[in-house]
Amino acid sequence: MSELTSVLFAGAIALAVVLHLAWLARTSRGRASAARAADEAGIRTVIADAVDISDGMAGVAAWAGSWNGRRAQIRTIVDTLATRKLPTRWLSVTITEAVAVPGTFDMMMRPGSPTTFSNFDHLEHTLPKAATLPDEAVVRTDRPGVAFPQEVIAAHAGIFAEGRAKELLITSKGVRIVWLLAQADRARYGVFRQAAFGDAALDPALIERLLDAASSLRDALNRRERQAA
Fold it and tell me: What pTM was computed for the model?
């Protein structure tokens, strides 16, 4: 094989690789666009007036609207922190209505490495935990010495008995529940470093269930405050 032929052959191989990578990128974007459209359709099954409020942050999609007369926000977050073995996809459901609590109450299940969806790691004060809260939970706050009605919270935190419930965040502005949707496909991530989650589409029934749990807890906290007044 002449030197010219070798150069042409190497160039052809390089061009084929570039074209293949471009095709993979287009295919990946197409799949991502279709998955996002499917997520939005699922959300609008539950929140008919949902509006996309995503701010362009990589891996985060967000919608806001009203559910049963209450403001609500739905987010999906792809967590690709290097400290994790596999990228993880989370569902965050929030009732964004006022709550009668004296500060931030953040309950994280099995806290370990930092997350991209929570400020739990930045809260410096760990609260003594009521025995009725899950064994694997750790509770932190921004206001040490403030008492939270943990018995009321525990009575409405039954969903955290399931392994996929990750965080319960209560502030004066709302109640949030974070749920594990899926972990990335190990083989694909190991070879291509692509966070593919297969068929981890949003289930409208799950969204409704989490909204109901967050809303019921908010109602119970506000009812307790009114009764104590």
Answer: 0.80
